[in-house]
Design goal:
α10 packs antiparallel against α11. By secondary structure, this protein is mostly helical. The chain has 12 helices and no strands. The longest helix is centred in the first third of the chain and has 18 residues. The chain is elongated and about 70 Å long.
Length: about 240
């Protein structure tokens, strides 16, 4: 009873039976009210409750579900709770409109979802996800999105994963690196050059690898991308 009265079902089956007895339209109304109530009652804790709020908005077929479920995924990814992150991003992606969704949001969801999959070593799911991202980008005619999708794929093909393929990585890099240069997209360029560095070293061509790696490191330093700088320097480590 303190600090406020709470109610709970004694058994999950009772809860499920009660829930299924409610008409779908009424369910949506109730889910919407719960989501709105949580936002109103805990305005300073929306990140903490993002997964629950997002769930209720999703069940209410309310577009605000996307923002909250993505926030839940972002929080889980920061905490390295990879299973939760994958679950939230998967549900977020199922709700977004790929044809007219904001490009920045869509890109962020695809890349973060893929990153969570990579961190748990699930490259078999990450690679098709990035390939889907590429198709969506091409359908939208969005070159920035396409470059991000290609770069994500090169990371898998140019690193020691089960899909390592220096030739495929080189092909994708060639398709996207000039695009990144022409757009002045320095974060993307630094990542692509790192992949080119990896490809060169895999092929035993240290001149290509080191040249690309040094340029990647210089750009990463310039823009303050410490994570990319760490990846690039790690690749260059030990090269004579």
């Amino acid at each position: 009873r303190e600090p406020e009265r709470k109610y709970a079902f004694r058994h999950g089956l009772t809860q499920e039976a009660a829930y299924r007895s409610i008409l779908q339209r009424k369910r949506r109304e109730l889910h919407l009210r719960v989501a709105q109530a949580l936002e109103e009652l805990f305005p300073e804790r929306t990140e903490e409750f993002a997964a629950v709020i997002g769930h209720h908005y999703a069940e209410a077929a309310d577009p605000r579900a996307v923002r909250h479920l993505k926030a839940a995924g972002d929080r889980a990814l920061r905490l390295h709770a990879l299973e939760e992150a994958v679950t939230h991003y998967r549900r977020t992606l199922a709700l977004v409109r790929r044809d007219d969704e904001d490009a920045r949001l869509l890109t962020d969801v695809y890349l973060r979802y893929g990153r969570a999959l990579e961190l748990r070593g699930d490259y078999r799911e990450a690679l098709p996800l990035y390939q889907e991202f590429e198709r969506v980008a091409r359908e939208r005619g969005d070159q920035a999105m396409e470059g991000a999708a290609l770069s994500a794929q090169t990371t898998i093909y140019s690193n020691p994963t089960e899909f390592v393929d220096p030739d495929k990585a080189a092909e994708l890099i060639a398709r996207s690196i000039e695009l990144a240069r022409s757009r002045g997209d320095k974060p993307l360029l630094a990542k692509l050059l790192w992949s080119r560095c990896q490809v060169g070293l895999w092929r035993g061509d240290e001149d290509v690898g080191v040249t690309a790696g040094l340029e990647s490191a210089a750009i990463a330093r310039e823009i303050g991308d410490d994570e990319q700088l760490a990846f690039t320097l790690n690749s260059l480590h030990g090269v004579q």
